[in-house]
Amino acid sequence: VSLPGDVEAALDYGRSALESATRSGVIAYIGVAASNLSLALWIAGRWEELRVHLDRYAYDEVRSVADRLLMATVALWYDRATDGTSAPGLELETEPDHESLLAWRENYRLHALQRAGDRTAAAAAGESSVRHAFAATGTGDDFMHFWPQAVLAALDADDPAMAARLVAVVADTPDGLVYPVLRAQLHRLQAL
Predict the structure, then answer these.
(1) d(Cα 109, Cα 15) in Å, to the nearest integer?
(2) Which of 94, 53, 89, 50 is nearest to 72 (CA)?
(3) 90 or 174: whose pLDDT is higher?
(4) 5-43 exposure pattern, b = at least 16 Cβ within 10 A, e = fewer
(5) Are 129 and 144 in contact (CB under 8 A)?
(6) Between residues 5 and 182, which one has the greater pLDDT?
(7) 179: exposed, middle or buried (C-beta count within 10 Å: 0-12, 13-18, 19+)?
(8) Could you tell me the pLDDT band of residue 159, with boundaries at 50, 70 and 90?
(9) What value does the mean pLDDT of the chain take?
(10) If you write DSSP's letter for every residue of 67-112 in order, what string do you get?
(11) pTM for the whole structure
């Protein structure tokens, strides 16, 4: 997504996918479409629509571990960004077994631990989320969501060595493998 029109088109596709999944009645399809739209609404900064969406498609009712993790994490991001007081809990019947899912779980933990006031553990969870995300897709896919948050958590925990390690993950990656959004974040985070 590189242009404002692309964001709107992506949201339209996401809404359409959720509508189709809902008509199908297949719970798995609904969960995937609902979680993807949650993330798209977050990225687009559509706070009101995101809140309504999260209320309608409660992440604790989603069966898929992947979709539940994603929706609970986005709900926690939303709650923290809007100074909410209803930090969502997250219970999983099974532990994630894929690097990408482990990254989402650790990012959820980062924010839950920050909310609880444990900056050191939050920073460690952030570093773990980056490690898992990088193992899953390099700097692609969901990495762009976790990495800046992890660097900021390390700085918040007054751990400049950890922050430097995390910055190096992107700084040491060949330019052609780094999304422009990460390159922009790199310059910002290096300046902190």
Answers:
(1) 29
(2) 89
(3) 174
(4) eebeebbeebbebbeebeeeeeeebbbbbbbbbbbbbbb
(5) no
(6) 182
(7) middle
(8) very high
(9) 91
(10) HHHHHHHHHHHHHHHTT-S-PPP---SS---SHHHHHHHHHHHHHH
(11) 0.89
